[in-house]
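Archive maintenance. Older records in this collection stored only the sequence; we are now back-filling the structure field for every entry so that each record is complete. The fields below show one back-filled record exactly as it appears after the update. Entries are processed alphabetically, and 2-amino-4-hydroxy-6-hydroxymethyldihydropteridine pyrophosphokinase is next in the queue.

ARCHIVE ENTRY
Title: 2-amino-4-hydroxy-6-hydroxymethyldihydropteridine pyrophosphokinase
Organism field: Loktanella fryxellensis
Length field: 198
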Amino acid sequence: MTQNGGITLVSLGSNASDGRVSAASFVLYGRDRIRDAFGSAAKCSRLFATPAYPPGIGSDFVNAAVAFHKRLSPDAVLAVLHGIEGAAGRRRQDRWGPRTLDIDLLAQGDLVLPDIPTQSHWRDMAPEDQRRLWPDRLILPHPRLQDRAFVLVPLMQVAPDWVHPILKRSVAQMRDALPRHEVDGVRQLDDATGLDTA
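Back-filled structure field:
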């Protein structure tokens, strides 16, 4: 066991605009609704701009992360997150297409779902299979979180010491293991304007 306690980690992203609402505004909306649902003590990262993933699917993303303590089942948390996505106009038609708001449940404390072999199977899946296959159940921790700078860089602001219960590496260690150019490609934005702070 680690010292993760009952922390829940969530990632938010958007790369769509309806002409009136920017991607940054969609992420801020999601971040605020998560705090409304799970408590004002929730820790929220700043906004970050990240290259679209996978490359070529559309505009760059705006990403953020939230960490909170709330004793709810993963399914109950996921239901709330899906409701927030739906209220932001999210339609689950294309797995990796443009989306107004994408909210992923990344982890809950030391919980592994549904079990270590299944989580490891999805975590170790070849990249070419990741595009055409996806699980029919919730997998925790999220099987790709250790591979994605756009998840780990925002998580550094809210839960740098959370330790992956299988990999036994903290958020900081997983981020530091990524190629430098991937980490550097995640740029902090001004929350008020959605513009690059550099």
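Update note: The first strand starts at residue 7 and ends at 14. The chain has a mean pLDDT of 88.
Entry marked complete.
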